[in-house]
Amino acid sequence: MDELKNDVRMLALEYWNESAGVTDSGMEQFPLSIVAFVLEYAIGYCHFPPHFSEEKKAAIMTNFKNSLAMACVDMYAKAGAEGEKTHNENGVQRTYNDSYIDKNLLDKLPNYVTVL
Question: How many independent structural domains does the chain possess?
Fold first, then answer.
C-alpha cells in the first residue's frame, strides 16, 4: 500500500504543477494526509470483501492511480472548504459537485457490492 501511496502522491504533485501551468509550484511534496484520506475513502467506496488482503486491494487500486491522483488534487484545491458544496470567501464564491471527493472521479473504481 505504501508504494501505491507514493505513486499517487507523485502523480498528484505532477497534476498540481501542470494545472498551475508551472514546472515547479514551490510544493516539494504533495500532502500525505490528503493522499491517505483519498485512498482510505476510495477503498471504502469499492466495498472490498473482508477477505481481500491489503496487498490485493493495493494491486487493484494501482490500476486507478490517475483517478486517485486527480481526486487528491481535487481535495487539495478545496482546502478550507472541506465538507462544503459551496464556499464564499472575500467575495469569491465557489461551487463544487461534491462536498469531499467528486463522485465522477470515483465512478471508474470497481465496486464489489452484490445484490442477493
Answer: 1
Give the pLDDT confidence score for residue 79 in this predicted structure: 72
112: in domain: no
Query: What domain range is 51 assigned to?
Result: 2-106
CB 49 within 8 A of CB 112: yes
pTM of the predicted structure, to 2 decimals: 0.79
Residue 115 domain flag: no
Which of the two residues, 92 and 82, has the higher pLDDT score? 92
Residue 76: predicted pLDDT: 86
